[in-house]
Design brief:
The chain is of the alpha/beta class. It has six helices and five strands; from the N terminus they run αβαβαβαββαα. A five-stranded mixed β-sheet has the order 3-2-1-4-5, with helices on both faces. The two termini are about 35 Å apart.
Length: about 300
């Protein structure tokens, strides 16, 4: 049995750890609120941009010739872009994205396709390098607070790979924020731009930008400029969703850690009280035995 001093030392250490986990929970909660506000702020922009794309595409019959819309006759190489965090202590946030990405890559390889890797976040980059996978490019340092410029950097790279023919398909894998307790892994085709985006306007609710317009310059030229912006916007939205999911997962993980620390403190305190009682009992027995020895 551990001594009273050992148990006191362990309880003190766990209490200090609980202070850290509670502080991290509060920080993650504040960052989560900011991340949710950023997602809500960018939705109107994304909706209006989507409506403009749909209206421009319907005004022209030759938009399918644009590079980012062209579909390959045979898909030989696929780029997978998992969005992970730069730090851990977020439960299964990073693991579930990478697990899904690896399962998806095995399916592609089983069909005879070649997988090429891009990654965002230090955790994903280190895992891919540990597995000795060929990483074309890794981006780090912005997982908890991504900026639009970060999404542009990712978008320019994947667009260049697709236009130059190095890959025939680009898929991004990330955690979609549902609630602080729930993060859903999403596998989204980024390039070529899906047909339903231009045909039905994606998930945009308001389709009022449909009418008879005169375009200057031509619709094809306008759409050629809008398509890269669409890719940037989709990646920015995915980065924001991933950032909110990371903070939600970290907040939940730290809350569970604080709860477990409290339960462990209660268990150790009970063990310490029993050990102290045993020591007191032993001292009383020694005193009684000594008194008996003196009276004899």
């Amino acid at each position: 049995m551990a001594s009273v001093q050992d148990l006191k030392r362990r309880i003190r250490s766990i209490r200090n750890t609980r202070k850290i986990t509670k502080a991290m929970e509060l920080v993650a909660s504040a960052r989560l609120r900011r991340a949710q506000a950023r997602i809500e702020a960018m939705r109107p922009y994304a909706d209006r941009m989507m409506e403009l794309m749909v209206g421009t595409a319907r005004a022209s019959s030759s938009v399918r010739s644009l590079p980012l819309l062209q579909r390959r006759e045979s898909v030989e190489a696929v780029a997978i872009l998992p969005l992970t965090g730069d730090r851990g202590l977020a439960g299964a946030f990073n693991a579930q994205v990478l697990r899904h990405a690896f399962a998806f890559s095995r399916e592609l390889e089983a069909e005879g396709m070649r997988v090429r890797w891009l990654v965002s976040g230090r955790k994903g980059a280190s895992t891919l390098r540990f597995r000795r996978l060929d990483v074309l490019q890794a981006w780090t340092g912005f997982s908890d607070r991504p900026a639009y410029a970060d999404a542009q950097a990712l978008a320019h790279k994947v667009a260049d790979l697709y236009v130059e023919g190095e890959v025939d398909r680009v898929v991004v894998v990330y955690n979609r924020f549902v609630s602080p307790l729930v993060q859903q892994v999403v596998e989204q085709d980024l390039l070529p731009i899906p047909e339903h985006v231009l045909e039905a306007g994606g998930d945009v609710e308001h389709q009022h930008l449909l009418g008879d317009f005169i375009y200057e310059p031509e619709p094809e030229e306008i759409l050629e400029r809008l398509l890269p912006v669409y890719v940037e916007t989709e990646l920015y939205r995915a980065l924001l969703e991933s950032a909110a999911s990371e903070q939600g997962a970290r907040m939940t993980a730290m809350r569970n850690a604080s709860k477990n620390a409290g339960e462990l403190i209660d268990t150790l305190t009970l063990a310490m009280n029993r050990a102290r009682q045993a020591e007191i009992t032993q001292e009383i027995l020694e005193v009684v035995a000594g008194a008996d020895a003196l009276t004899q």
